[in-house]
Amino acid sequence: MQSRRVSGPLRNRLEQLKKPWWREPTPLVLQHSETARLAVDAFLEQGERGYLSAIAEERELPFLSTLDMEYMSHQRNLSYPELNAMKDKEGDPGDADTGDRSSLCSELTSGTYFPLMSDVHPPELELGWPGIPLLTVSGQTQATVIFQRNKANSIKDLFRSLISRARTVIAIVMDLFTDMEILCDLLEASSRRHVPVYLILDEEYLKHFVEMCNKMALTQDSFPNMRIRCLSGDTYYSKAGKKFAGQVLEKFILIDCDQVLAGTYSFTWLCSQVHTSLVTHFRGQIVAEFDKEFRYLYAESKAVTSFSVSDPLSQNTSKSTESLLKPIQNDAETLSASSSLSNGAARARPGPARPGPAADP
């Protein structure tokens, strides 16, 4: 008699938790789930039908939400737009090399190490970067939490106040940036007070920042003392070579390498008016960790080099996003480099070097 297959780890745990008479604690499993990996790989290769088939085969819970699957589908299509177009023309004799090109992309993306990456030097913080003040390095960590519900302490006003008092550097990591007032504050700090400003934005939401700049008729020349870059999150690779990238959802601002605001607040009108959020104001030794994190992110980011102002109200910005990124490698190198390391792996490399004399990017 054939034995009944064992349920997947998540389903098995849930079944035990549903038993009111079960008193034995369920061991906490923190390691990698091979069942989950097989299901996600099936989704990337065959879509939702393949994912559900893998879930049934492994007797596991359908752990991916609709939101997860929609995001992964969108990102998967962005990863290989030309291959997706080829798939629609499989019957076209002129596309006989589709299989070969798909195989090539699979070979390039299925590995986890490319020596090419070690040959790419991280960008320098060429506008200048102050050392962390001695009192900050040696001082005890201080933290103050500010909630958006407390109308007496506006989070946006706190950000703007710190920006207005910055003297040596402003470094920002932000997922969504559409607040014109804060952008004007950064322009004032960088151009009038000559404070270097470094801005890292999430690549997925870069189009919204570009749209704001279009509405304000801002071009690359409008940011002489600012460096604007973008970055995606970690990248997931299937064994068959499919991939999708995550987002940068870290949100913090580093002022003068002396204090940090970090939390859930995004630079948008909605966050300033109706969304609830919180930030923590850090000072002391902990600031060094944010300094280090910013350097890692900056080393992994790509430069945004131009802003189109031809049609300020155009909504078709997603297709032009790639043209805003600084090309630093040829096509083959770019595919290899972008798929070689996740952000987590890249952090094994040193951060950007301390800058020498200022130079044009």
TrEMBL record:
Entries under Pfam families matching the protein: SACK1
Compositionally biased spans, kind Pro residues: 352-361
Record InterPro entries: FAM83 (IPR050944), SACK1 (IPR012461)
One Gene Ontology biological process: signal transduction
Alphabetized UniProt keyword annotations: Cytoplasm
Scaffolding anchor of CK1 domain: residues covered: 21-302
Molecular function terms, GO-annotated: protein kinase binding
Name listed for the protein in its UniProt record: Family with sequence similarity 83 member C
Region described as Disordered: 83-102, 332-361
Localization of this protein: Cytoplasm
Gene, per the UniProt record: FAM83C
